[in-house]
Amino acid sequence: MVSEMGLEPTWCEPYEPESYASTNFATQTFYIDFIINKYITYIFFYYNLVMLFDILNKKYKLYYFCTAIVKHCNLNCKYCDHFSPLADVEFKDVKQLEKEFKQIKKIIELEKIGIMGGEPLLHPDLVQILNTTKMIFPETQILLVTNGILLDKLSDDFWITCNRNKVGILISKLNIKINTDEIKKKIRQFNVMATYYGADSNEYKKMYKPVLDLNGQQCIEEMHEKCWQNKGKCNYYENGKLYKCSIAGNIDSFNKFFGKNLEITKKDYIDIYKTNFRKIEEYFNNPIDFCRYCNLNAIKYDLDWEISKKDISEWTM
User: Fold this and answer.
1) Domain boundaries of the chain, sorted by first residue
2) What are the angstrom distances between the C-alpha of 200 and each of 171, 174, 179?
3) Which is nearest to 272 in space by CA: 67, 40, 26?
4) Which of 16, 116, 189, 206 has the maximal Cβ count within 10 Å?
5) How far apart are CA 248 and CA 220, in angstroms?
6) How far apart are CA 74 and CA 85, in angstroms?
């Protein structure tokens, strides 16, 4: 039939578009690349998820912070950087403190905690506060900072609590009259850790005068660099806010008493209910706005202890 039509017979190879072998190889390569990219995407997503979880749940390691369970004091030292001579009579609620400490435990790994004031021995629920603190922070050392005036008058329950919870008592050695013999007797009787604070056994504690710039004209970076509170020695907790500066944390008493407005901004503290590891780390590595109110170039040291006259010049030029 073909010959009759004048056509020469030809041999046709089976149809393979671009050759079957090369097409199959390209297809396999495509799927391999697809699978690799898919798993890289999964790994990247998983890695970021882990990092996010770590940021949200990792605890920041903090050496120390203190908190005032009372704002007022029975001594009222001149130059007090907690402004206790100016403070209202105020006692920290135990249940509220427990709630706040439990929240802090979620975000902070704490080595030492200072229970102070004002004068902490004025708090009627001091024993309960010490027990609650140890319950929440079982691995944290508790330090009770006091002027010592009331120590010889406290019940045995207080001393037993200090022994059981390994509370260290730090007594500010001021030039005042306290019943040292009776206090030492109690310390030995109940095997409680206690020492003088701010001076050795042969000297009285000297005071320093913080100098506030009421106009806030100081260089923030310079003051932050010079400040010893920047070294983590004076971290302060108050009402849901963690400060790196005890002066900033207590400035409300100064403002109220003298009718001033040394402003606290959101950059001056950590909100314990709205934070994570990264935010805390950034906060402690940078200056705060309140630094502008501290004139560290005018600060005075080695001053004799005196009773405050509640004059604004005790904290200003």
Assistant:
1) 21-57, 58-314
2) 11, 11, 18
3) 67
4) 116
5) 14
6) 9
